[in-house]
Amino acid sequence: MSLRTFLAIDLPSSLHLAIEQKQNQLKSVLPGINWVKSDNLHITLKFLGDTPESQIDDLRQIVEQAVKGTLSFVLTLRGFGAFPDKRAPRTLWTGIESEENVLEHLAAQVEAAVVSLGFPEEGKPFRPHLTLARIKKDHRELGQAIEKAGVLADPFIFGRLLVEQVTLFQSDLRPTGSVYTKLWAVPLAKS
Fold it and tell me: What does the record list as coiled-coil region(s) (predicted)?
């Protein structure tokens, strides 16, 4: 049997709350957007997809080995952006700032480790972000509403995050939305 999984950085409750408050403010000016539930907020390092249950322990060992020399570090969640572009967005996100591209380095370490277990390479560069909302329809109209509301120009700081571990999540797709379950976490080195 296989599980749908991904490797990510989990958020503390204080950041969940700050993001949820900002999402609630934006709901009134941006109707029709599917906001990510507070419980599902995370920073994805690598989406793995179908993962055989028999590989879960091997995956833990290889990720633990890959990140063992990486010191814990601080990220700042700031501002807004849109994928694929602001005129017809499908995803609204907040940016992630770190010193010396440490998050990109961590993602590369994780990528190299899981590829050695047979997971496919990403195929596109890692772009640090945290997804706040998904836009399923009316992309151009919502792009105009986002522009008019000045969301992408808002330098709002959600907060800072001390990254101390990498977590493997299981993702269960349900009619009411995805439900994420933590399977394990491996620590980074103490700074």
Answer: none
Q: Identify the burial level of 120 via C-beta atoms within 10 angstroms of its C-beta, where 0-12 means exposed, 13-18 middle and 19 or more buried.
A: exposed
Residues 6+ apart with CB under 8 A from 31: none
Tell me which of 16, 105, 129, 139 is the catalytic residue.
129
CA distances 93 to 30, 50, 67, 82, 117, Å, are 14, 25, 26, 6, 30
> How far apart, in Å, are the Cα atoms of 41 and each of 8, 58, 90, 183?
10, 26, 17, 16
16 in catalytic set: no
Q: Which one, of 132, 127, 128, lies nearest residue 92 by Cα?
A: 132
pLDDT at residue 123, as a whole number: 86
Domain containing 145 equals 2-187
| 106 Ramachandran zone, left/alpha/beta (phi>0; psi -120 to 50) | alpha
Q: How many domains does the chain have?
A: 1
For 66-97, the pLDDT digits (tens) are: 999 999 999 999 999 999 988 889 999 999 99
